[in-house]
Amino acid sequence: MATPSIKSTYVMDMATMQALERIARHWKVSKSEALRQAIRAAAEQPLPDAGEALRALDELQRSLKLTPSAARAWARAVRRERAATSRRSETRGG
């Protein structure tokens, strides 16, 4: 019994398409089969735990003693630096 299939259209950038073509040639399968195999392989991988990433960020911020007021001060300093850099570029014609 044949496996039912669904035709779909996807837009890929040139580098992705070239990578798919290389993989298909290497595996000696069609581009469609290479794409199916790649998707199956990716689906078998555990999905990242968003909570784990947030815990890591919280831990990093604690280790840096990054308080809300310190974060605001850093953001103000960065904005001033970017504005100054932008003004210098404009006066040089850049």
Architecture overview:
By secondary structure, this protein is an all-alpha fold. It has 2 domains: 14-44; 50-91. It is 70% helix and 0% strand. It has 4 helices and no strands. The N and C termini lie far apart (65 Å).
Order of helices and strands: HHHH
Strand content: under 5%
Low-confidence stretches: none
Distance between the first and last residues' Cα: 65 Å
Helical content band: over 70%
- Compute the number of structural domains: 2
Structural class: mainly alpha
How many distinct helices?
Answer: 4
Major sheet attributes: none
Shape summary: elongated
Total strands: 0
Taking all Cα atoms into account, the compactness measure Rg is: 24 Å
What is the quaternary state of this protein?
A: single chain
User: What is the average of the pLDDT values?
Assistant: 89
Question: Quick summary of this structure?
Answer:
The chain has 94 residues and is mostly helical.
Topology:
Blueprint (H helix, E strand, L loop, with lengths): L13 H14 L3 H14 L5 H14 L4 H24 L3
Helix pairs in contact: 1-2
Provide key terms for this protein.
single chain, mainly alpha, 2 domains, 4 helices, 70% helix, elongated
